Known about the structure:
Shape of chain B: globular
Oligomer: heterotrimer
Order of helices and strands of chain A: HHHHHHHHHHHHH
Radius of gyration of chain B: 21 Å
CATH architecture of chain B: 3-Layer(aba) Sandwich
Largest interface: A-C, 51 and 46 residues
Radius of gyration of chain A: 24 Å
Structural class of chain B: alpha/beta
Amino acid sequence: xxxxxxxxxxxxxxxxxxxxxxxxxxVHIAPGDPLVSVLPPDASEQLRQQMMALYGFDRPYxxxxxxxxxxxxxxxxxxxxxxxxxxxxxxxxAVSNTLMLAALATVIGFVLxxxxxxxxxxxRDTWIDKVASAISVTGVSVPHYWLGMVLVIIxxxxxxxxxxxxxxxxxxxxxxxxxxxxxxxxxPAVTMSVIPMGIIARTVRALVAEILSQEFIAGLKAKGMSxxxxxxxxVKNAAPTALAVMGIQxxxxxxxxxxxxxxxxWPGTGLLLNDAIFQRDLPLLQGTILVLACFFVVLNLxxxxxxxxxxxxxxxx
Amino acid sequence: xxxxxxxxxxxxxxQATGSEPVRPLLEAADLVKHFPIKSGLLGRSNAVVRAxxxxxxxxxxxxxxxxxxxxxxxKSTTARVLMNLIKPDSGNVLLNGRAPGTPELSxxxxxxxxxxxxxxxxxxxNPRLTVEDSIAYGPTVHGVSGSDAVRRARRLLDRVGxxxxxxxxxYPHELSGGQRQRVNIxxxxxxxxxxxxxxxxxSALDKSVEAQVLNLLLDLKExxxxxxxxxxxxxxxxxxxxxxxxxxxxxxxxxxxxxxALYTGGRHPYTTALLGSMLSMDPDERTxxxxxxxxxxxxxxxxxxxxxxxxxxxAESVCSAKTPVLTVSGTGxxxxxxxxxxxxxxxxxxx
Amino acid sequence: MVQAVxxxxxxxxxxxxxxxxxxxxxxxxxxxxxAMIALGVIVLLILMAILAPYIAPHDPFRGATLRRLRPPxxxxxxxxxxxxxxxxxxxLIYGARLSLFMGVTPVFLALFIGSAxxxxxxxxxxxxxxxxxxxxxxxxxxxxxLLAIALSGAMGAGIVNGLxxxxxxxxxxxxxxxxxxxxxVRSLDYVEAARASGAGALSIVxxxxxxxxxGPIFVYAMSLIAVSMILASGLSFLGLGVRPPEPEWGLMLxxxxxxxxxxxxxxxxxxxxxFITSISFNLLTDGLRSAMDIKA
Lengths: 317, 351, 296
């Protein structure tokens, strides 16, 4: 088992390297001047050359890459061109904000999704199934950023119950777990939870339906096991895969939070990414993408390993 | 029941009993095929499965050679090596003295002369192709025109007992197991081969259907003049259909010779135990104990010397030291056992 | 054995033919009401996109500041006007063109490229497989939204750039499915039997592998269309895909945000269109899967 884990970890390393290369290349295929946000348009050529040398943009790509990678491994992702603060600090703060939101959204999505999925799978092809399945397919089909806007219209504009944007009084720098702050989380988290809810519901439905159709269930019923006992068996068998899907969904939410955060002005990595793109803040852009991608890779690794720990058959395949 | 109808037929034979030198049609010389097992941190292979470990035999024109042995003895792998579907690690396969893949015999030409019928009748047929398209595919690969190939396919269907008007346009899932195997036989015949290898071809069929297909095979052999290799774990069937039998154990040939000689007077202890494990219909011959003790050892780590010595009641020290070779033990009868080999050092061997 | 029928009779006789795989699938699909409705909706949307010039009441680009942000139900402007005074209904109808195009095209391009990569990797196996799939894995290591936005952000806004980045996002999942299905088909007996007939790799792939592999791959690709539509309009929503003044549903959501508090209904409309399209594609794919008897 340990060899499997070790193999898996080692296998991740070239992937990470590839990810780093792609991150690096991404910003360098960008057309346009990397210094456009720093220099005034009428800057002299001399100043230009100096700035290029300062940022190291005039060296060959391979050299730039290795330097950047070396510094990144040491924890230095450069300085944001726009704010002049270290990228690591900016990203670190943003990541924790997004993580809060994504974690809450994943939990909501998992709980609701499992509920719907379980109900649908247990009562397959009845009206209960159809309703639950309709809800889950809606979850997957809804453009979530639009849903966010609709929720804002209903709960903020019309009803005035919840705030539409931001991370609470004082912004995210002064985050405290009190109602004044948490109420800012509710709408974005609920909006974010919709797609994971749909996906988990569909997955759980298929799992439950398949488990229930297996012969050992008939054997258990013949032995006289109660409905609750069978329920426990189903949960035990479905849990590994369902949890794995949840883990992956968390990863997607972390990486794809930009749309929701734009709607709600939530100061997370998504919003940071948005700013970085439109301000052409290359170091920030590079750093953010790298951190998010690495998060995703590591998350995948953890999910894989945990799945193997629970179900050793996977390692043997 | 099946054995009653089966026993009355006398298999046609053209045996190499040593009366006149007949050139073998197919020869296998010292075939070796090991499969590495990947394990450990870097995927290095620490162990190998010795699926086929030095198999030598000859196949003579017009005969049916049966190959028997327990699971894992290498029967199927040998068949695939013979078919050139798997490349052997060492050793040769010769068709009429020529090796496939050489200028004297192209791989394609070899393929058209040696064909195979697989065990799983359903998995052997492409579920998206009609029956006639499946049969016609082989000929088209060899240059036969589409319409000619279809014509040939329909005639072959008729020959194997399936009315082409009813069956040619059907899909595999609409046919029964026995019908599918007939289609597979027709497909094997489509290239007009000389040799057909039947790898457990009737094992998955119901007994009555099995008898029909066996009779079909025998009829075809007589009509067309085919040569068969019949691999099976069903000893009764092999006894019925084969002229000669080869017994394999853990990737090696234990004994090879005429059917009756092996079934009534096998010289290798494994042969007698295996063929003696066939249950008799005679209530007086009831057996209370299994003739063979223990499980078949792992082909990953076979015992040294004679592979069988760990389960052999006649084993002596020489059996774990030296590997026995195939020695003559009768007309056209060869056994790989120290007891048969004079000068091997075994106490039972003739000096 | 006596031949039952004379050879000439066999050759000329008409044979009974069973319906092929896809006609069986269609027959089963037809009996599924939800799937048929979804198909109908999609056909309607496509027709709407094609016939836009004939059915839209107004020019989608002509706006007048005087007519800004009129609510739905205004006479002459059935669904109101947007922030530049342009007729919403016309923009929604014309919007179908770009939205559908941006949603469907990347998936089909990725289907073509991804299948080629995956099937080759799956059939050839060995080192080619490892090389191809590991490269795919690197791209797959990025969450899709992030990758799409990063690529679009790097290349700049625009339809072509949006198409390119979305296609790149969808190639890895399709390639993986293609490789996985091809590998499992390749080890089946009938492929071995085809090899035993002496056929070359290309012939085997064409005749035996493709027919059995394209079905599952195609269904998987269809399930990606809904995602692609949401992602494509999401890109436009962020200002990265289609640029103004083109009518596109995601872009319209972006530009109408300013009217969130004053005319909420207007804001909701483009999203409803995206939702209808997306859910129709999802239901269509579900129906197709059931008809093909594949477990989701």
